[in-house]
Amino acid sequence: MAARIRSNKNRDLEPNLYESGGYYKYRHPQTGKYHGMGSDRKKANVAARKLNAMLIPTNDLVSRVITEQSVLFGEIITRYRKEYLPTKKLKPRTLEEVTYRLNRLERDLKDKRVDSMSIKVIADYLDENFQNNAYIKFRGLLSELFRFGATKGLCDTNPAENTLAKVADDKKRRPLTREWYNAIYAHADDWLKVAMDFALITLQRRSDLCAAKFDDIRDGHLHLIQQKTEKHGLRAHLRIRVVSSLDNVIKRSRQSGIASPYIIHRRPVRIRRSKSLVHWSQIRPETLSKEFAKARDKVPEIAQLPISQRPTIHEVRALGGHLYFEAGFPDEYVQTLMGHSTLKMTHHYTDRHIKWTVCEAALPI
């Protein structure tokens, strides 16, 4: 809308500044709201001039050149993906998680000028969009993106690094008891029962469970490379002897009627091609978690708990470790299967399953 023609007495007023009865008011060019500017004509003009400079987009040649030279945050993300991310040599699961976060940041912030991304802008974005561990992960990735951008001359500061660094929340999940395991098992599909027993016996993480193939069984041993601990050396390369209990689980898997290369597999409702799957019967780690959660939530005693307290598929690993100790297996045996670098970590996983015996000490003396 074109500005109104000024009367002769108001021709010296700045745009958006108006006078009424000796009192001046400024009309916000974006919201249309009026703000009082007092009765001093000179001061009101100075204030209106500053406000216009801040609130009205300019079309002068200098501003256009500066704007064209400004770096958008999307450019940093694009170059980070192409130049730096491949050098990190992340495991497939970790790469998938980082890619998910990059996609989110690209969607939300790609058109932001880097020089306009202040500490407050980043802090507000994090506070408004993420909580708990998600906040920590996205803040860390933003910090790394700005550090990368600085090495390429795309930015001079790292506003994310100066935002609040939060501490990870304490886990509140209930340990999975043998009784709960059996109750969940009763609601599980056949393939999920195989997965649960496979996890309980081998004590492997879900990514390693889903990656295990029948071809990994050679000379009576199951060969597994634990993805999370592979960089720590030979402890991550396990050659697990296939004894009767594990052999029974593998045989049940082979009886599914599906020609799958993977020990944990199923026939999906719809077979779709996917770049993230080698075979259509393969189970993604997140799918294993979701399907376990569906069966878990059919158990009334567990379903009444807050979601944050309900045990996940990961708790099967901890229960299995506890059962090994309960059966008299030595510490080193369980630690090796779990792939922990220290026995302290193994005990941290399994000690939550200890049941306290109720008694009294009431001797009168």
TrEMBL record:
Belongs to the 'phage' integrase family. One of its GO terms (molecular function) is integrase activity. The keyword Glycosyltransferase does not apply. GO terms for biological process: DNA recombination. InterPro entries: DNA-bd_dom_sf, DNA_brk_join_enz, Integrase-like_cat_sf, Integrase_catalytic, Integrase_lambda-typ_DNA-bd_N, Integrase_recombinase_N. Residues 171-363 form the Tyr recombinase domain. It comes from Nitrincola iocasae. This is Tyrosine-type recombinase/integrase. It holds the Pfam family Phage_integrase. Keywords: DNA integration, DNA recombination, DNA-binding.
